[in-house]
Sequence to fold (107 residues):
Amino acid sequence: MSYQVLQEFYVQAVRKSPQSTNAAEAEVRDLFAWDPVVVDASVIETAWRLQKQFSLSFWDALIVGAAKAAECPYLLTEDLSHGQDLDGVRVVSPFRVAPSDLDRPSE
Fold:
């Protein structure tokens, strides 16, 4: 997860329920424990390459670039094509696959 994703989550949560600002802030603070990826020059360079290679929007490419930087094998999203392999990051719709159905990387 990147800080971009946290920002998008917060904006959507507050937009849908303006009275829940405190709850949205608390949720984002809890997610800080996941050590979000900082969008830096390397992530942006990767995003530009992915944008061109896969015809993604820049914002989607930036999310995929952050997932690559974090070495995530999966990207949970409903905004991209389920099952698509984006340079080693597999797109998974959280509404189509249960977490238990995903292959776990060996540790």
